Amino acid sequence: MLKDEIQQAFIIAYREETEPLEQALANEGWQVKLFRNERSPDSSCAAIYCCMMNHRRAWVQAAAEPRPTLIVEADFVPVVGMSSLPLPMDLSQPSTGLCWLYTCAAQVYSLSPDGFAEGFSTSLVAYVVTPAAARCLCGLADWVHEHHGTGYFNFDSEVDKYLRSHGFKNYISFRNYGEHGGIPNPEHRQHGISGIHRADVLAGPLAFRPLYAGTGHQWRSRYLWIRLNARLKGIGRLLLGRFLRPKILRKASAPGRMLQWAIARQLIRRL
Fold first, then answer.
1. What is the pTM of this model?
2. Which of 103, 109, 98 is nearest to 123 (CA)?
3. What residue ranges do the domains of the chain occupy?
4. Which CATH number is 2-266 given?
5. pLDDT by residue (tens digit) across 257-268?
């Protein structure tokens, strides 16, 4: 279980209200530390660059810890009982790097005999990182700064590629351990990316209401509609071969087992 292997949770934030998230994580038994972005309003740096540097601050500390660290962004909404869910990464292997507990545009690469799913995601809304991988990711931030400066660059899409190039294996959870509850970053839209992404399938009920649901009397209807669309999108990605690529399936040592895992992931009534 997560609570057996992870003692602390870091929150990456700018100006967001984080008290509900801090309380939810503390209720799960974790020591919570908040990393506030110190970007000034007149800063010329892109917001996503400042976000990356805030993650880097967390990576520096995570690299110095003896155990893996849970890192979440401020708009993450965990499921109830998150700490009692399995840790979906193989800590017995020194090559284990990062595990996404919330996935966006996810793909599964392989399934180990123990049921650990090696895979890919583009988002850093919620993940667990080992000390060695955290140390390596500091190099990614430095590489981005050197090659792309302080402007807009989707650094989180490079995490898997960068870690794999340094010998790490990365994993995805069977279902999402929480939701991306925030509203889209306007920077993404300015660069032709919608920025809207939600959990395709949740591992449990959410600990508190996500920001996107709003506060009006129709918030529940809005929430259910957004969740329904997220579920349908996830099922669509599975049917279209985007979650489990046909090429990957053909080369798998146990294709039937991988396909069963991918289908079972979506077989739940909860929105």
1. 0.94
2. 103
3. 2-266
4. 3.90.550
5. 999 999 999 999
